[in-house]
Amino acid sequence: MTSRQTTRLADGRELIYFDAAPGIDRTTPDRRTDLPATSTTSQVRWDPLFHTHTVIADHRQTRTYRPPADLCPLCPSRNGMQTEIPAPDYEVAVFENRFPAFSLQAAETVPIVTEAPFRSAPGLGRCEVVCFTSEHTGSFSSLTPRQARTVIDAWADRTQDLGSRPSIAYVFCFENRGEEIGVTLTHPHGQIYGYPFIPPRFFNAAQTSRRYRQRTGDCLQCVLLRAELAEGKRIVATSERWVAYVPFAARWPYEVRIVPLAHVPDLSAVGDAERADLADMYLDVLRRFDGLFDTPTPYIASWQQAPSHDHRDDWHLAAEVLTIRRAPGKLKHLAGSESAAAVWINDVSPETAAARLRGEDSS
Q1: What digits encode the pLDDT tens for the residues 234-246?
Q2: Using omega within 30 degrees of 0 as the cis cutoff, is the peptide bond preceding 117 cis?
Q3: Rg of the chain in Å (alpha carbons)
Q4: Which of 84, 117, 283, 312 is the most exposed place for a label (fewest CB within 10 A)?
Q5: For residue range 112-157, what is the model confidence (pLDDT) as tens digits?
Q6: Successive 10-residue mean pLDDT values, the chain, 363 residues
Q7: Of 228, 217, 174, 210, nearest to 306 (Cα)?
Q8: Would the pTM of this model clear 0.90, i.e. be above it?
Q9: Average pLDDT, rounded, for the chain
Q10: DSSP-based three-state secondary structure for 288
Q11: Which of 38, 273, 250 lies closest to 149, judged by CA?
Q12: Cβ distance 15 to 93 under 8 Å?
């Protein structure tokens, strides 16, 4: 069973170590005596015309940007180099982001605007960094199943913890990989956002799922999963408890949804056997993405979980892995239709994408 140890960094931020087995003391103190306190100006502004939130966080302009490997802040600390991880080694480490888009302390410094038509509130939430391994090189796909399982347990732990906080409406676990995606730290890592609101895409999905269940008594995600399994053309991989497929209406050149056969709302509700199976399935899908091209595939991997406090019974957990690369040396840019009108135009059919991910079509 994964063990958990909590400590604090020199500026008071929380740091949590996760290990596949107990018995290792990771609580080395942070020796950075000159670390200034964090300051957050995160503000959530409401757009009444498009019914969405925008987060204004100009303090993030000073965040760390593509440091050399010997100055990586996510590597373990060593003599002469103190990082965000004080311990000399670790398996998985999670800590509060020093440059967060949301913070539970934002209310102390951020003004509130209530004069119509303008409305804003402090960005009350939390942003965490998840370091998948102490090794600076490699990626999630190079982890062993046991290492991947420890990351999954860390995601589940943080989902339960953050989701229990009244000010956090949605917990979003995700990873950005590759310079083309805009990654500024190459060390294998991901992030977790605790949003003070439900992001629009997931809010719409929650409303749709709720209406579908009220009308039919069934889960929409379950219906989609059964239909994909019956048709088979877009299935990428299956296991005893999980299915990976390219959605019928995929937006991105290569996009895979990983769905449990069991109806569960989020990662914290996934059982022990399902987590073990997921470690193998998740690694399999990421490796299939890296097999598409001659160089590592840039991707975004994220978890679509139930909102923290509403619509939980209607929601069916899923992961989404996508790449912006549509062909060797060519990226899918969000141009006018996608960026301005939010209408995606996909250059690769979902059936072709699934075949290539299965290794059946290399054309």
Answers
A1: 999 999 999 999 9
A2: yes
A3: 21
A4: 117
A5: 899 999 999 999 999 999 999 999 999 999 999 999 999 999 999 9
A6: 94 97 94 86 94 91 86 94 96 96 81 92 95 97 98 98 97 97 95 97 96 97 97 98 98 98 98 98 98 96 97 96 96 94 96 97 61
A7: 210
A8: yes
A9: 95
A10: helix
A11: 273
A12: yes
Cβ(71)–Cβ(82) below 8 Å: no
The identity of residue 184, as a single letter, is T
Q: Which of 243, 235, 232, 238 is CA-nearest to residue 316? A: 243
CA 101, distance to chain mean position in Å, is 14
Beta strands in 163-272 (DSSP E): 170-177, 189-195, 235-238, 242-245, 254-260
Task: Compute the C-alpha angle 313/315/318, nearest 5°.
Answer: 145
Comparing CA positions, the residue from 102, 70, 99, 89 lying closest to residue 27 is: 89
CA distance 244 to 235: 6
Question: Distance between CA atoms of 253 and 353, rounded to whole angstroms?
Answer: 7
Separation of alpha carbons 184 and 92, rounded Å: 20
Taking the alpha carbons of 54, 57, 58, 61 in that order, is the dihedral positive or negative?
negative
Which residue in the list 187, 189, 311, 316 is annotated as catalytic? 189
What count of residues does the chain have?
363
Residue 189 annotated to the active site: yes
